[in-house]
Amino acid sequence: MEPKKLQDLDLNGKRVFVRADLDVPIVEKVNVFVPSETYRLEVLKDTVNYCISKQAAEVVIVGHMGRPTPEDQNNTKFSTQSLIPSLEKILGCGIVYRKIDEKAPINGVTMLENIRFYEGEEKNDPEFAKTLASIADVYVNEAFAVSHREHASIVGVPKLLPHGLGIWHQKEIENLSKAFENPQRPLVVLISGIKDDKIGYAKAFEEFADKILIGGKLPDLMQIDKSIRDYSETEKVLVANLTIDKFDITVNSIDRFKEEIFKAKTIILAGVLGKYEEEGHDQGTREVFGAVARAKAFKIVGGGDSLAAIEKYELKADFNWTSVGGGAMLEFLTKKTLPGIEALK
Predict the structure, then answer these.
(1) 277 in a labelled binding site
(2) Second label for 219, Cα 20 to 30 Å away, from 79, 168, 177, 204?
(3) Can you tell me which residues bind ATP (predicted)?
């Protein structure tokens, strides 16, 4: 059963609950918090404009920022208000800030306060889901990057309202599915980073990938003591060797990874190879990402650090699909669905 789509919904005169991914990096400038990157906000444009074009009475943008504690209720760093100026520029319209219990304007686009200020969100509390559902008539999931979370605004609210996938979310599914629905081979997965859950994802990729290249801090976490030179051509999983300070992969590892990359016809890139932000530790990321960009293959990249790196090296145009998801992308690729998608079926 396919998930329902935004285009299938009657929006005329309706209040539309748009679950967005608002968890963008925040920096302080002249005593004001502002987003340092806006790519996750930019994906809202088509969905919000579609809702407006279909005469929706109100578009309520809902999401979270960071992991606030109860003591952070008045910390403006975690308030969605800081996103409004940037999002107004992206959408080309005014946005009114509101809290859950505040009355909404008759028409327009509104921004709800950070829903992680409420304990019921992450607990997937049914009563909190009812409270959220009460502010809208229709639900749209435009938060692919957090759709692997079983939270109230992701899986609870869709049970209570007519629902559908947002426009960008539909594109995520369409493009990522190309990696496991008759992909061009060889299919190479390059998975790196510092989170140990990626080791489990690497294992899951063994079911359909031809080669899995592992870098970042993962080789250290896996405690594999094997030279990159000792891997045979037939071995599916290649684990990089790290430099002495463990902030990058070795030159030999870079060369071996490039050999596999240039053979590939489909490449999934998830994670940076080292501490690429610092000169002296960026060689692995710079050279391997550059090799992926030059490869004659269908190329997918996702995750915050990966997207920041391709922006730094000006490689975005060389990828066929740039996913806003990190963990969500990996979970979708290995499980072929997400809780947030299942909730819309």
Answers:
(1) yes
(2) 177
(3) 198, 277, 303-306
